[in-house]
Every structure is written in C-alpha cells, then in structure tokens.
Write a structure and sequence with these properties.
eleven-stranded mixed β-sheet, about 325 residues, single chain, Rossmann fold, 10 helices, DHBP synthase
C-alpha cells in the first residue's frame, strides 16, 4: 500500500490504472475520504465490501464526473432531479434514481435504484476521469465506525488493506453527502452536506424516511458512524457520571464537569465549521482511552440536522 499526494498528476495516473485493473483506491472528496472501485467490476466492488466488513444489503454511491454520465447509469432524470443537479452539483448531494440494468446488483444491493453523486473535490474528479469509468465508493473506514476526514484516520483503520491512498489533506465539508430519493415522492434518506431547507426551497417539502433493516441508501442503519469509545448524547438535566474517564464533545464552549478532554466544534456557533470538525474531533477523543464520550446536542437546523443524525447513530439504542 502506498500513500501519494493527490495533487500529483502521476499519482492520479497510477490510481486510475489501479481502478481500471480492478484494484481499490482511497481518495479524498469534499465530504469524507472514499474507498473506491470500478462500479462496473463486481469483483472489485466485492473487495470494497470485504475491506470495510460492510453488509451486502447496504448499497453504495456511484461517483460520476459529469451530470451527462447519468445517461449511462439511470433510466431517467426528471425535472426535479435536473433542478437539483443544476443547483447542487458538483457537491455533497446524492440522488437515488431508477437504474439501468448494466449497473451491477452488488452496487445497489439488488435494488432497482442507484445512488449517484458528482463530488466537487478536484482530486476525486481527476481520478474518475483518469479511471475511464465510474467509481463506487463508501467512506474509507470499517463498517459502522467513524468516517475519515484525514489520511491518518484511514491509515489507523484500513490502510494496510487497500492498494493506494491519495492524500488530499483534510476534507472541507466533514460530513457525508445528503441522500435524496425522488421516487415515488421526494424523501430525505440521510441528512448531510446540503441542508434540508435548501433542497425544500428548490423542490418543495421532503418526506422523512426512517432507518430500515434493508436500507435504500448508505447510512440508514440505526447504529452507525460509531467511535470505539461508548458515546452518549447529553440530555437536559442529566448528571455527569462519576468515577469514569470522560471526554466531552461540545458545540460552542466547554461546560463544567470532570472531563479528561474537551473538543469544541465551533466557538462562534457556526454549524458549517462544526460539521467540518465533527469527525476529526471524535477521532481525537476516541484515541485517548476514555471510558465514555459525552456529546452536547446541536440545533437541528441546517447542517446541525446532519450532525445530530450522526450522533444518534453513533449512540445507537439507549436504555431508558
């Protein structure tokens, strides 16, 4: 396994060759680092599932370099999708659309739809172009664990299991893409890098989709995005446990308490800054050998909705 600077054209050429030959490559996007394979090579895609230890019923996102690429992947793109693509692509919005038969079932977990997005990160786009195919890629981490926003996060987790890592520095957005299904009605499957409010201003009210045992899109399972250290969201009036080595994930400022370590997401209360620092802060807390991470709730608006979604899934089901 090699780590190369993604800005180097020779590194992109090597990564593209690896994808074309059925290998797997870690690459940066504006959201998190992805673990990519040729979307039309079922054996390569199967290796992605194997490295991540990801269940085969959890579909992947196919990354494209141009909206015109949907003609090869999707049966149709209606006016709502075209409006969303014009406004938000390239960027952190994934659309779930009816798929063409040529898309392998392993990519879509046997569903008749495919999740597609066009990333805005220049290294990701260069890699897709050089690969001469489309890249199926989940986040580059073990299934259910914290998503990586830096190369170091990948190296600690799955770095020895991949063929090449392209280093593009820290990810700008820091949480995964928003996932939206358009059929039969516009439905928010996963909050993410594009706030729900911005989408609703463009195409109207979105329905909410509860997590399912068989997901329609990545990240829908009730426990996901989890650190190794147990995590709990702080409820109003809740007492801090005693006798434990506890870390705090705070929104704007530290609160009083017997904390061994504190990570503040945004001292000025900026939800965009908080999102960009979210996984990185959790990774740091998770490396400290704590007994527990306590997380403050954030306002459930804009990118705060995506952060709270990740926190609830990191916490999982909690005893009353």
């Amino acid at each position: 396994m090699k780590v190369l600077k993604g800005q180097d054209p020779s590194a992109i050429k090597e990564a593209g060759r690896i994808i074309r030959e059925g290998g797997i490559v870690v690459f940066p996007t504006e959201t998190v680092y992805g673990l990519g394979a040729d979307a039309f090579n079922p054996q390569a895609v199967a290796r992605v599932f194997e490295v991540k230890k990801r269940p085969f019923f959890d579909p992947l996102i196919v990354h494209v370099k141009d909206p015109k690429d949907l003609e090869e992947l999707c049966e149709g793109v209606d006016q709502r999708a075209k409006k969303l693509i014009e406004r938000f692509w390239p960027g952190p919005l994934t659309l779930v659309l009816p798929k063409k038969d040529k898309v392998p079932d392993i990519v879509t977990s046997g569903l008749k739809t495919v999740a597609v997005r066009m990333p805005s990160h220049p290294i990701a786009l260069s890699l897709i172009r050089e690969s001469q195919t489309f890249i199926a890629a989940p986040s580059a981490n073990s299934f259910g664990k914290l998503s990586p926003t830096r190369v170091e996060h990948v190296l600690r987790d799955i770095g020895d299991k991949v063929d090449l890592i392209l280093d593009g520095g820290p990810c700008e957005v820091g949480v995964e893409s928003t996932i939206l299904a358009l059929y039969p009605r516009p439905t928010l499957l996963r909050p993410g890098g594009i706030p729900r409010e911005e989408i609703e201003r463009l195409i109207g009210k979105l329905e909410s989709h509860p997590s399912r045992e068989k997901p329609l899109a990545p990240g829908e399972l009730p426990k996901h995005y989890s650190p190794h250290t147990p995590l709990r969201i702080i409820r109003e009036g809740e007492k801090i446990p005693e006798g434990l080595k506890i870390g705090l994930l705070a929104f704007k400022r530290p609160r009083e308490g017997p904390f061994w370590a504190v990570e503040v997401l945004s001292e000025k209360g900026d939800l965009r800054e908080a999102a960009s620092r979210f996984f990185e802060a959790l990774h740091r807390l998770d490396q400290l050998g704590l007994d527990l991470i306590l997380a403050e709730p954030l306002p459930e608006e804009g990118l705060g909705l995506a952060i709270m979604d990740r926190l609830r899934k990191a916490e999982g089901e909690r005893e009353a």
